[in-house]
Amino acid sequence: MKLISALLFLGFFSQAQGQYMFDEKFMTTAVLVDYKNGDFGSASFLADSLHVFLVTARHVIYIVDSTGKRTNKLHGDTAFVTTYSDNIGTDRQHKLTIDLKNLDRSGLIFSDSTRDVAVLWLADNHNGGIDYNDYVNTNESRHLSVVQMSQIARAADVKYGMDIFFLGYPKSLRIITNQLELNKPLLTRGIIAGKNSINQTIILNAQVHHGNSGGPVWGAFPNEFKVIGIVTELIPFESEIFQNAKQVPNVGVFNNSDFSVVQPIDHIMALLDLVRKKAH
Protein backbone atom coordinates (compact mmCIF):
# COMPACT_ATOMS: atom_id res chain seq x y z
CA MET A 1 0.00 0.00 0.00
CA LYS A 2 1.25 3.46 -0.87
CA LEU A 3 1.20 6.44 1.43
CA ILE A 4 0.79 9.76 -0.36
CA SER A 5 -0.03 13.24 0.82
CA ALA A 6 -3.50 14.57 0.03
CA LEU A 7 -4.34 17.94 -1.44
CA LEU A 8 -7.60 18.79 0.32
CA PHE A 9 -9.61 21.06 -1.94
CA LEU A 10 -10.62 24.40 -0.45
CA GLY A 11 -13.53 26.07 -2.22
CA PHE A 12 -12.91 29.45 -3.80
CA PHE A 13 -15.87 31.80 -3.94
CA SER A 14 -16.23 35.28 -5.34
CA GLN A 15 -19.07 37.13 -6.97
CA ALA A 16 -18.80 39.93 -9.50
CA GLN A 17 -21.81 41.48 -11.19
CA GLY A 18 -23.94 38.47 -10.34
CA GLN A 19 -21.46 35.94 -11.74
CA TYR A 20 -19.84 33.27 -9.59
CA MET A 21 -16.14 32.77 -10.20
CA PHE A 22 -14.24 29.56 -9.63
CA ASP A 23 -10.65 28.73 -9.03
CA GLU A 24 -9.63 26.06 -11.55
CA LYS A 25 -8.89 23.70 -8.66
CA PHE A 26 -12.65 23.49 -8.21
CA MET A 27 -12.72 21.47 -11.42
CA THR A 28 -10.34 18.86 -10.04
CA THR A 29 -13.05 17.45 -7.76
CA ALA A 30 -14.57 15.69 -10.78
CA VAL A 31 -13.43 12.11 -11.38
CA LEU A 32 -13.71 10.02 -14.56
CA VAL A 33 -14.53 6.30 -14.21
CA ASP A 34 -13.74 4.14 -17.25
CA TYR A 35 -14.09 0.43 -18.06
CA LYS A 36 -12.46 -1.76 -20.70
CA ASN A 37 -15.84 -2.42 -22.34
CA GLY A 38 -16.32 1.29 -23.05
CA ASP A 39 -18.71 2.08 -20.19
CA PHE A 40 -17.97 5.28 -18.28
CA GLY A 41 -19.29 7.67 -15.65
CA SER A 42 -18.32 10.38 -13.19
CA ALA A 43 -17.53 10.47 -9.47
CA SER A 44 -15.71 12.40 -6.76
CA PHE A 45 -13.50 11.69 -3.77
CA LEU A 46 -14.88 12.35 -0.30
CA ALA A 47 -12.83 12.20 2.91
CA ASP A 48 -13.58 12.25 6.60
CA SER A 49 -10.96 12.28 9.35
CA LEU A 50 -10.27 8.56 8.95
CA HIS A 51 -11.15 7.40 5.45
CA VAL A 52 -11.17 8.30 1.75
CA PHE A 53 -14.05 7.21 -0.47
CA LEU A 54 -15.04 7.26 -4.11
CA VAL A 55 -18.63 8.51 -4.33
CA THR A 56 -20.73 7.94 -7.42
CA ALA A 57 -24.06 6.72 -8.75
CA ARG A 58 -24.77 3.05 -8.17
CA HIS A 59 -25.36 2.46 -11.88
CA VAL A 60 -21.82 3.67 -12.63
CA ILE A 61 -20.56 0.63 -10.65
CA TYR A 62 -23.33 -1.96 -11.14
CA ILE A 63 -25.19 -2.68 -14.37
CA VAL A 64 -28.86 -1.76 -14.81
CA ASP A 65 -30.52 -4.34 -17.07
CA SER A 66 -32.66 -3.66 -20.14
CA THR A 67 -35.81 -3.52 -18.01
CA GLY A 68 -34.37 -0.85 -15.74
CA LYS A 69 -33.82 -3.27 -12.86
CA ARG A 70 -30.75 -2.75 -10.68
CA THR A 71 -28.36 -5.72 -10.61
CA ASN A 72 -25.30 -6.67 -8.59
CA LYS A 73 -23.27 -7.29 -11.74
CA LEU A 74 -20.25 -5.02 -12.10
CA HIS A 75 -19.56 -3.11 -15.31
CA GLY A 76 -16.12 -4.69 -15.19
CA ASP A 77 -13.67 -6.40 -12.87
CA THR A 78 -11.48 -3.29 -13.02
CA ALA A 79 -12.30 0.42 -12.97
CA PHE A 80 -9.86 3.01 -14.27
CA VAL A 81 -10.19 6.32 -12.43
CA THR A 82 -8.71 9.59 -13.65
CA THR A 83 -8.63 12.98 -11.98
CA TYR A 84 -6.41 16.04 -12.00
CA SER A 85 -3.97 16.54 -9.17
CA ASP A 86 -3.89 20.31 -8.93
CA ASN A 87 -4.82 22.27 -12.06
CA ILE A 88 -7.31 21.26 -14.74
CA GLY A 89 -5.36 23.36 -17.25
CA THR A 90 -2.41 20.99 -17.09
CA ASP A 91 -2.03 17.39 -18.15
CA ARG A 92 -0.88 16.24 -14.71
CA GLN A 93 -3.40 13.52 -14.08
CA HIS A 94 -3.78 11.27 -11.07
CA LYS A 95 -4.75 7.74 -12.08
CA LEU A 96 -6.10 4.90 -9.97
CA THR A 97 -6.78 1.34 -11.03
CA ILE A 98 -9.40 -0.26 -8.79
CA ASP A 99 -9.86 -4.02 -8.51
CA LEU A 100 -13.65 -3.78 -8.28
CA LYS A 101 -14.18 -7.53 -8.26
CA ASN A 102 -12.18 -8.09 -5.08
CA LEU A 103 -13.21 -4.76 -3.55
CA ASP A 104 -16.81 -5.96 -3.92
CA ARG A 105 -16.02 -9.43 -2.55
CA SER A 106 -14.36 -7.83 0.47
CA GLY A 107 -17.49 -5.83 1.25
CA LEU A 108 -15.85 -2.46 0.60
CA ILE A 109 -18.46 -1.25 -1.91
CA PHE A 110 -21.51 0.14 -0.14
CA SER A 111 -24.66 0.81 -2.14
CA ASP A 112 -28.37 1.31 -1.64
CA SER A 113 -30.75 -1.21 -3.19
CA THR A 114 -33.39 1.49 -3.72
CA ARG A 115 -31.33 4.64 -4.29
CA ASP A 116 -28.82 5.32 -7.02
CA VAL A 117 -25.79 5.94 -4.79
CA ALA A 118 -22.60 4.02 -4.09
CA VAL A 119 -19.57 4.54 -1.87
CA LEU A 120 -16.25 2.73 -2.41
CA TRP A 121 -13.92 2.58 0.59
CA LEU A 122 -10.50 3.07 -1.03
CA ALA A 123 -8.11 4.30 1.62
CA ASP A 124 -7.48 5.43 5.16
CA ASN A 125 -6.11 8.77 6.35
CA HIS A 126 -2.91 8.52 8.38
CA ASN A 127 -1.02 11.59 9.56
CA GLY A 128 -2.13 13.74 6.66
CA GLY A 129 -1.51 11.04 4.07
CA ILE A 130 -3.57 8.47 2.19
CA ASP A 131 -2.93 4.78 2.74
CA TYR A 132 -4.67 2.93 -0.09
CA ASN A 133 -6.04 -0.56 0.47
CA ASP A 134 -4.76 -3.60 -1.43
CA TYR A 135 -7.32 -3.24 -4.23
CA VAL A 136 -6.10 0.15 -5.45
CA ASN A 137 -3.04 0.78 -7.62
CA THR A 138 -1.95 4.35 -8.26
CA ASN A 139 0.67 6.28 -10.19
CA GLU A 140 3.26 8.36 -8.38
CA SER A 141 1.22 11.56 -8.17
CA ARG A 142 1.42 12.98 -4.68
CA HIS A 143 -1.80 14.97 -4.66
CA LEU A 144 -5.46 14.03 -4.66
CA SER A 145 -8.34 16.53 -4.66
CA VAL A 146 -11.06 15.49 -2.26
CA VAL A 147 -14.26 16.97 -0.87
CA GLN A 148 -14.14 17.35 2.89
CA MET A 149 -17.01 16.87 5.32
CA SER A 150 -17.01 20.61 5.99
CA GLN A 151 -17.86 21.12 2.32
CA ILE A 152 -21.17 19.26 2.22
CA ALA A 153 -24.73 20.47 2.79
CA ARG A 154 -27.80 18.45 3.68
CA ALA A 155 -31.01 18.46 1.65
CA ALA A 156 -32.78 20.52 4.33
CA ASP A 157 -30.35 23.37 3.64
CA VAL A 158 -31.04 23.35 -0.12
CA LYS A 159 -33.43 26.10 -1.18
CA TYR A 160 -35.60 26.53 -4.26
CA GLY A 161 -33.96 28.76 -6.86
CA MET A 162 -30.47 28.23 -5.46
CA ASP A 163 -27.72 28.33 -8.07
CA ILE A 164 -26.00 25.00 -8.60
CA PHE A 165 -22.99 23.84 -10.57
CA PHE A 166 -22.24 20.24 -11.41
CA LEU A 167 -19.13 18.62 -12.80
CA GLY A 168 -18.78 15.51 -14.90
CA TYR A 169 -17.48 13.75 -17.97
CA PRO A 170 -20.33 13.62 -20.55
CA LYS A 171 -18.25 11.67 -23.06
CA SER A 172 -21.39 10.66 -24.94
CA LEU A 173 -21.24 14.08 -26.61
CA ARG A 174 -18.27 12.89 -28.65
CA ILE A 175 -20.67 11.48 -31.25
CA ILE A 176 -21.84 14.94 -32.26
CA THR A 177 -18.78 17.15 -31.78
CA ASN A 178 -15.01 17.07 -31.75
CA GLN A 179 -14.74 20.21 -29.66
CA LEU A 180 -14.56 18.46 -26.30
CA GLU A 181 -11.48 17.13 -24.57
CA LEU A 182 -12.95 13.87 -23.37
CA ASN A 183 -10.35 13.50 -20.61
CA LYS A 184 -11.40 16.77 -18.95
CA PRO A 185 -14.62 17.56 -17.06
CA LEU A 186 -17.28 20.06 -18.03
CA LEU A 187 -19.05 22.47 -15.71
CA THR A 188 -22.83 22.96 -15.99
CA ARG A 189 -24.87 25.64 -14.25
CA GLY A 190 -28.54 25.54 -13.22
CA ILE A 191 -30.88 26.11 -10.30
CA ILE A 192 -32.80 24.04 -7.79
CA ALA A 193 -36.12 23.56 -9.56
CA GLY A 194 -37.86 21.20 -7.17
CA LYS A 195 -37.75 18.55 -4.47
CA ASN A 196 -39.43 15.17 -4.69
CA SER A 197 -40.59 14.38 -1.16
CA ILE A 198 -41.63 10.83 -2.08
CA ASN A 199 -38.36 9.80 -3.73
CA GLN A 200 -36.32 12.15 -1.54
CA THR A 201 -34.50 13.58 -4.53
CA ILE A 202 -33.66 17.06 -5.78
CA ILE A 203 -34.66 18.31 -9.23
CA LEU A 204 -32.37 20.61 -11.20
CA ASN A 205 -33.14 22.94 -14.05
CA ALA A 206 -30.01 21.76 -15.87
CA GLN A 207 -29.52 19.30 -18.69
CA VAL A 208 -27.32 16.24 -18.19
CA HIS A 209 -25.91 13.73 -20.65
CA HIS A 210 -24.65 10.17 -20.48
CA GLY A 211 -21.41 10.27 -18.52
CA ASN A 212 -22.50 12.98 -16.06
CA SER A 213 -23.94 10.36 -13.70
CA GLY A 214 -22.14 10.28 -10.37
CA GLY A 215 -20.61 13.73 -10.70
CA PRO A 216 -20.67 16.16 -7.74
CA VAL A 217 -23.29 18.90 -7.54
CA TRP A 218 -22.14 22.11 -5.84
CA GLY A 219 -24.65 24.55 -4.38
CA ALA A 220 -23.89 28.27 -4.11
CA PHE A 221 -24.47 29.16 -0.47
CA PRO A 222 -23.70 32.62 0.93
CA ASN A 223 -19.94 33.11 0.50
CA GLU A 224 -19.19 29.43 -0.09
CA PHE A 225 -19.88 26.40 -2.25
CA LYS A 226 -20.94 23.06 -0.80
CA VAL A 227 -21.66 19.67 -2.33
CA ILE A 228 -25.38 18.88 -2.08
CA GLY A 229 -25.35 15.52 -3.86
CA ILE A 230 -24.59 13.70 -7.11
CA VAL A 231 -26.19 13.69 -10.55
CA THR A 232 -28.00 10.42 -11.25
CA GLU A 233 -30.36 10.77 -14.20
CA LEU A 234 -31.93 12.98 -16.82
CA ILE A 235 -35.65 13.65 -17.02
CA PRO A 236 -37.01 12.94 -20.51
CA PHE A 237 -40.08 14.30 -22.24
CA GLU A 238 -42.20 12.64 -24.88
CA SER A 239 -42.66 14.18 -28.29
CA GLU A 240 -45.78 13.14 -30.18
CA ILE A 241 -45.32 11.81 -33.69
CA PHE A 242 -47.64 13.00 -36.42
CA GLN A 243 -48.16 11.46 -39.85
CA ASN A 244 -50.32 13.17 -42.44
CA ALA A 245 -51.28 15.73 -39.79
CA LYS A 246 -52.66 12.97 -37.55
CA GLN A 247 -51.19 11.80 -34.29
CA VAL A 248 -49.96 8.20 -34.32
CA PRO A 249 -51.45 6.50 -31.21
CA ASN A 250 -49.06 5.34 -28.48
CA VAL A 251 -45.97 6.40 -30.39
CA GLY A 252 -43.48 8.95 -29.15
CA VAL A 253 -39.84 9.98 -29.12
CA PHE A 254 -38.22 10.48 -25.73
CA ASN A 255 -35.85 13.43 -25.58
CA ASN A 256 -33.67 15.02 -22.94
CA SER A 257 -35.50 17.79 -21.12
CA ASP A 258 -33.80 20.64 -19.27
CA PHE A 259 -34.38 18.90 -15.93
CA SER A 260 -32.33 16.31 -14.08
CA VAL A 261 -32.26 14.35 -10.83
CA VAL A 262 -29.86 14.59 -7.90
CA GLN A 263 -29.47 12.13 -5.06
CA PRO A 264 -28.87 14.33 -1.97
CA ILE A 265 -25.71 13.96 0.08
CA ASP A 266 -27.92 12.65 2.92
CA HIS A 267 -28.18 9.25 1.20
CA ILE A 268 -24.41 9.10 0.84
CA MET A 269 -23.96 9.94 4.52
CA ALA A 270 -26.22 6.98 5.36
CA LEU A 271 -23.81 4.68 3.49
CA LEU A 272 -20.84 6.21 5.31
CA ASP A 273 -22.49 5.22 8.57
CA LEU A 274 -22.32 1.61 7.35
CA VAL A 275 -18.63 2.05 6.56
CA ARG A 276 -17.92 3.34 10.05
CA LYS A 277 -19.75 0.39 11.60
CA LYS A 278 -17.67 -2.01 9.52
CA ALA A 279 -14.47 -0.15 10.44
CA HIS A 280 -15.16 -0.57 14.13
Which shape, going by the Cα principal axes?
A: globular
How many beta-strand elements? 22
Order of helices and strands: EEEEEEEHEEEEHEEEEEEEEEEEH
Report the C-alpha radius of gyration, rounded.
19 Å
Largest sheet: 12 strands, mixed
**Helical fraction:** under 10%
Structural class: mainly beta
N/C terminus separation: 21 Å
Q: Count of helices? A: 3
How confident is the prediction overall: mean pLDDT? 84
| Low-pLDDT sequence parts | 1-14
Strand share of the residues?
over 45%
What does this structure look like?
With 280 residues, the chain is mainly β. The chain has three helices and 22 strands. The strands form four sheets. Strands 1, 2, 5, 6, 7, 10, 11, 12, 13, 14, 15 and 16 form a twelve-stranded mixed β-sheet that branches. The protein has a six-stranded antiparallel beta barrel with strand order 17-18-19-22-21-20. Strand 13 (118-126) and strand 14 form a beta hairpin. The protein is globular and about 70 Å long. The model is unreliable at 1-14 (pLDDT under 50).
